[in-house]
């Protein structure tokens, strides 16, 4: 009986992975159509500092929960910065980053959104690295005018990897075969249904090197580092906050309020400038450390269950991601 149950569960997992979906009923999807509302965290002055929270695995696609789809981190960052552009009282932005990174595309778009916001408004941006701000999380921070790392931050992991779920063993176990008819020998390279060939691994390695060259160039340029300084982290290692500062990747160690102070100083905003956030639900006595700031849906843990995150299985692709933290992040 135990073996039968195990095979049934394995088949269910296989169906979810192949179909690329999770069971859900979109009865609450309208919640995210509500407009963002401003809420003040602290301060009473005329000038404003906007706090934007960038959390979770960076990806372009929405998270699929049981009852709804949650907008992607890229969409949430974009809509908040777009709203900030229309408010002349906002003098600076603080981006708190708690992310192990994500896809190459999403990481680059987050970087570009911050860069464009600075270019179009002239407002400074301060990045505050929280628990984990690794790989694509750091890539995003590189667009900021100043980077402050929480003393206990794990950062670095500056590099690129190709990830894909390997289901060949599972297919053998449940006795399922996948027949592929293809137009060329390499059309199914990266397929999760078989092992890669040496030629395919070499091609993926070159893709990784090409994408990583851009990552390293952005870090080198934004942090004004020479080639010798790059040797301290270009192998992709993760770093403590102090190691990152010694390597020139961050400007100082501090906390979220140090980010507010830096934003006020860089922008010339008054000492009593308000710190505000944009969200779709009001939280009484809100603070900058509110981990529910992504406007959670009603329904609790069941409504928020994300199959892909729970299984810890990414979509196949190129990532600026620290794999050691993957699977526990939405």
TrEMBL record:
Coiled-coil-forming residues are none
Q: Which InterPro entries match?
A: ClpP, ClpP/crotonase-like_dom_sf, Pept_S49_SppA, Peptidase_S49, S49_SppA_C
Record domain Peptidase S49: where: 119-267
Pfam family of the protein (one): Peptidase_S49
Does the record carry Hydrolase as a key word?
Answer: yes
This protein's UniProt keywords:
Hydrolase, Protease, Serine protease
Which NCBIfam families does this entry report, sorted A to Z? SppA_dom
The family line of this record is:
Belongs to the peptidase S49 family.
Report the protein name in the record: Signal peptide peptidase SppA
Write down the species: Oceanidesulfovibrio marinus
Which gene is annotated as encoding this protein in its UniProt record? sppA
